[in-house]
Amino acid sequence: MVSVRRPLPQAPADLWDRPDMSEALARRDIGAVFKIYRQWTGATQTQIAAACEVPQSHVSEIQNGRRQVTSLEIFERIADGIGIPRVRIGLADKPGSVPEPRTGPPGVPAAEIPAEMVRVYPSRTAVPGDLWRTLFAEATHQVDVLVIAGLFLPDGHADFTAVLRRKGASGVKIRYALGNPESPVIALRGDEEGIGDGLAARTRITLTYLAALRDAPGIDLRLHSTTLYNSIYRFDGDMLVNTHVYGAPAAHSPVLHLREQPGGLFDHYAASFERVWATTEGA
After folding, report:
1. 21-30, 184-193, 226-235, 268-277 — which is least confidently predicted?
2. Distance separating alpha carbons of residues 240 and 73, to the nearest angstrom
3. Which class in CATH covers the domain with range 120-282?
4. Cα angle, residue 227 at apex, residues 208 and 270 outer, rounded to 5°
5. According to CATH, where is 1.10.260.40 located in the chain?
6. What is the CA radius of gyration of the chain?
7. Which of 22, 62, 268, 271 is deepest in the core (most CB within 10 A)?
8. Which CATH class is domain 1-91?
9. How high is the pLDDT of residue 7?
């Protein structure tokens, strides 16, 4: 007898607006999304797996917390497979699709999410560690880093400097700009964040970590003394922009993941990097 694959059950019209579902989507907690979805639709893991084009074992592992979804492709398969509005998990609409209606004050037109916006993370700490490693590892010709301290990178990845040295030796052009710890701008920023000289101290620690890069081929390590409005991390055609908020450390502020498209936000932030880089001095 030939088995017939049952289609997914009809989801309630308000499923994606339910408070528990909205919270799970905001956290990109696909395990919780699957649990809530199955609770309200009665769908089996096998039906979800078929709709999302992933193995049933993966659906089980995701739902039970043994597997985390980090791949953009898998997020897209899941969203399209079970009908999650893409905007709810920070994905760009499919080309040619009709965007989900957005509510707002009467008379104010709804803003479209730029197609180059891959995702918005609520804080830098919410950016998966694997994403940082993947972006650094897969860059083939250009890496730009503009930060005040950025201590989390060498402090959180034991092989960070070794990875950069290998990339530089392979022909990747790496430009790395840190805040000058002796600059009054950095001192002011430390005071505004409530940590005083702690910010300059973090920059000095980062410089100690990166000391081995000073004479490495392909790597240009410099210092800037600018008022930094965003930290910028560019990896070929991908960019992470860590916004800065007065009185808060960068780690607590949102991060935009952008993918290059001509004339868009990516170019806007890339131009900002170039303006700061033009003011830098050797570290």
Report:
1. 21-30
2. 18
3. alpha beta
4. 85
5. 1-91
6. 22
7. 62
8. mainly alpha
9. 78
